[in-house]
Amino acid sequence: MPKLFEKTAIKSLELRNRSVRSATWSGVGDREGFVTDRGVEFYRELAAGGMGLIVTGFQYVMPNGVAMRYQVGNYDDAQIEGLRRLCDAVHSEDCRVVAQIAHTGAKANPDLFPKEGDVWGPSAVTDPLSGRTPKEMSPGEISQLVQAYAAAAERSKKAGFDGVQLHGAHGYGINQFLSGAANRRGDRYGGDIRSRYRFLGEVLEAVRAVVGKDFPVLIKLSGNDFAQGGLTPEESLYVGRRLSAEGIDAIEVSGGSRASENGMIPSRLKIRRQEDEAYLADLAARFKEMVSVPIITVGGIRSPKVISRILDEGKADYAAMCRPFIREPHLIRRWEAGDLKKATCISCNQCFDAALEGNGVYCKVDKKLKEKKRP
Ligand SMILES: Cc1cc2nc3c(=O)[nH]c(=O)nc-3n(C[C@H](O)[C@H](O)[C@H](O)COP(=O)(O)O)c2cc1C
Ligand code: SF4
What we know:
Layout (H helix, E strand, L loop, with lengths): L7 E3 L2 E3 L3 E3 L15 H11 L5 E3 L3 E2 L19 H12 L4 E7 L17 E2 L13 E2 L2 H21 L4 E5 L4 H6 L14 H4 L1 H14 L5 E6 L10 H13 L4 E5 L26 H10 L4 E4 L5 H9 L5 E4 L1 H5 L3 H6 L14 H5 L8 H10 L2
Parallel strand pairs: 3-4, 3-13, 4-6, 5-6, 6-9, 7-8, 9-10, 10-11, 11-12, 12-13
Antiparallel strand pairs: 1-2
Bound molecules: flavin mononucleotide and iron/sulfur cluster (SF4).
């Protein structure tokens, strides 16, 4: 499996191989979003596992952008110290780390806001899961949010991150602006995909202005919302081309949200056979044909064989995984040592509940098995 273990680089970001730990909300922030001591150790243990790059769980860039309990925040300079400790821990294991920055828009949970605030969305469209209707953002609030992304990127650079990744997937803030279902605005931020792209274009421009041209800026982008009226592959490819032309450094192609139809959620269930694996690789390949920047594929990747095929066929440049690293943080080391059995994760999604405990996400299945074995 030589290609997976090739040394590569995304701009200035030198990577020891082509494996990426995809962003994973890990429940390691406190009530205000500060990184906990346990969080620092969590990332140190993870980084020892041999992956080329870690993308952190989504960090909220404004107090009213938090969606999940124990999510890490990146909205206040006082948070830099904890973020720096996290970076130092990863670097001490010779691994690289990129901060995923996000505002969860209409999916934000006001019960978790560290300060008073409204739930914001591009339009006052009721969120299908939470049942909440956000306040339609004014142009002034849009500018405020654009600047909040830039400030978070600047903080990330100061903290020692090797890059940032904009979260443009899974039905959260940026994805809401891109989606025709969530964005019904009548002004210059709404309308066809050119106009719905405007917000993301402004975010990228503002981020680039503060971090400089050499600092890696990546995006995780939904290549398809798999939802009625949502972002289509053709629209997303248009977004990919614009981003590539306007200075993005890599695109991780994901898709779907918790509201997607027919089980097409980002973390799909029951990945059992090789044919079930890498369920978004063909979508990634469409981006690979259209844009010149590195493409990362994510979604159901479990076997070294499947990774080799994707890399050899040129469908993507990097293979990202999330749940396999929850069950086996040292998966890459295992494969490197010659044990090429597929990841043991059974794609059941019980780890979402584990992250809610606030002590670092872990595999519930593995824990139950170990408890059974104990005398
Ligand atoms: C517990 C958990 C937390 C997640 N948190 C994030 C996140 O913070 N940001 C993100 O972009 N995706 C997040 N995801 C989605 C994963 O990054 C990934 O896209 C998805 O699980 C498919 O990859 P996999 O089959 O390798 O798990 C999360 C998934 C899980 C299971
Ligand atoms: S609980 Fe464990 S086996 Fe189930 S999806 Fe999460 S990591 Fe995989």
